[in-house]
Amino acid sequence: MTMPSRLPLQTSLSSRSLGRPENDCTPSGGLATPGLGALSRRSLFTLAGATLAAPWVGAHAQGKLAGGRPITLVVSYPPGGGADLMARVIAPKLAAAFGQPVVVDNKAGASGQLAASHVARSTPDGTTLLLDASSFAVNPSLYPRLPYDTATAFTPLAVLATFPNVMVCTPGFEARTVQDVVRLAKARRLDYASSGNGSAQHLAGALFEQRAGVELTHVPYRGGGPAMNDVMGGQVPLFFANVASSLGHIQAGKLRPLAVTSKLRARSLPDVPTMAEAGVSGYEVLEWNPILGPAGLPSDVKATLVAGIRAALDDAEVLGRIRQLGGDVFADASQQSAGAFIAAQQAQWAKVIKDRNITTG
Fold first, then answer.
1. Pairing of strands 102-106, 191-194
2. pTM for this one?
3. Residue 29 CB-half CA count within 13 A
4. Percent of the chain beyond pLDDT 90?
5. 3-state secondary structure the chain
6. Phi, psi of 6, deg, nearest 5
7. Side-chain half-sphere CA neighbours of 180 within 13 A
8. Is 260 within 8 Å of 275 (Cβ atoms)?
9. C-alpha span between 144 and 156 (Å, rounded)
10. What sign has the CA pseudo-torsion 261, 202, 345, 286?
11. Residue range 304-322: average pLDDT?
C-alpha cells in the first residue's frame, strides 16, 4: 500500500550511490557529501581538488585516446551527490593513467536521463563517458519511454564500487530484530519511509516485502533527509538508509540498525547482521556507480579505458575513500563481469517493479 506524500516537507540535500552520501539518502545520485553542494556545474579541479582552475591532467603518461583530447566524465546527478563524489575521487587517477585531461561535467535531471542521452549520442572515441548511479538499472522499468535503449546504446566499462543499505528504525521502536519486524507486519499495519515513489528506498522495501512474505505500508517523502528525520522523530518506524548517510545518526543513538542489505557485513557496522543472517534469504540491495561509454567503442579504445579505470581503482587513496564511505570496490577486479552485473540488476528490479506495480506517480 502507498500513503500520500508528505507534501509539507522539503527536498533533502543533493543526491546516494558512491563516494557515498554523507548527508542524503536520495535515490538519484547516491551519497551527498558536505562541502560539495556549492560547486559549479562544470567544475575543473587540480589533482589535489582544492582550487577551481583546470581539469585533472596526467603528469607522466602520453595521451592515448583521441589524440590526447580531454576526457569528459558526464555525471548524471548534481555536485555534492554520490555519483559526483565518485567522479571527483577517481578523475585525477584516470588522468594519470591516461596521460590526458579528465573533466567532470554534471548533467543532472530526469533521474539521470539527460546525462545518459548526451553520452548515448556522443562520438564513440573514448572521450565522453557516463558515470551514473544504480538508478541506471531501474530507469528502463520505471520510465518505459526513455530517449535511448539502455540495452544497446551503451558500452559497459566498469562498476566502480558497491555500497550496502541498512534497515534502520526509530530507537524506541518495539522491534529488536528483523524477525520482530516480520512478526509485527503480519499482525498489524507497519509503515516504512522512503525518499519518493520509485526511489531506492521504496524498491528496497518492496523487495523486503517479497522476500519476507509481508505487506508494509509505503510512506513516500520528497527526499531522503525529511524521511530519515521523521524516522528519527518516531513518526514512521522504518527506513532503508544508505550506510554513509545514516552512520552518524546510528552512532549517536538516533537510529537503530536492524540489518544491512549486502551479503557480507559492512565494515563500518560489523555488529549488524546481514538480512540473510537475520532470517530473510535471497535479499541483497546495493547501490553502485557504473562507467559506460556510447555504443560502438572500438575494442582497443574499450581496452584502454578499462585498463585506466582498473589502475585508478587500485590506487590506495581511492580504495580508502570508498571504504570510508562504507563501500567496496567492485568484486571483479578485471571488470569482465561489469556488463553482466548491470544486466542482472536491471532484471532484478524489473521484476520487483512489475510484481509490486511500482510507479513514479
1. unpaired
2. 0.80
3. 36
4. 75
5. CECCCCCCCCCCCCCCCCCCCCCCCCCCCCCCCCCCCCCCCCCCECCCCCCECCCECCCCCCCCCHHHCCEEEEECCCCCCHHHHHHHHHHHHHHHHHCCCEEEEECCCHHHHHHHHHHHCCCCCCCEEEECCCHHHHHHHHCCCCCCCCCCCEEEEEEEEEEEEEEEECCCCCCCCHHHHHHHHHHCCCEEEECCCCCHHHHHHHHHHHHHCCCCEEEECCCHHHHHHHHHHCCCCEEEEEHHHHHHHHHCCCCEEEEECCCCCCCCCCCCCECCCCCCCCCCCEEEEEEEEECCCCHHHHHHHHHHHHHHHCCHHHHHHHHHCCCEECCCCCCCCHHHHHHHHHHHHHHHHHHCCCCCC
6. -80, 85
7. 11
8. yes
9. 21
10. negative
11. 96
| pLDDT at 43 exceeding the cut of 50 | no
Hey, what amino acid is at 226?
P
> Can you give the length of the chain in residues?
361
For residue 210 the three cell numbers come to: 517479497
* Site of grid cell 587513496: 317
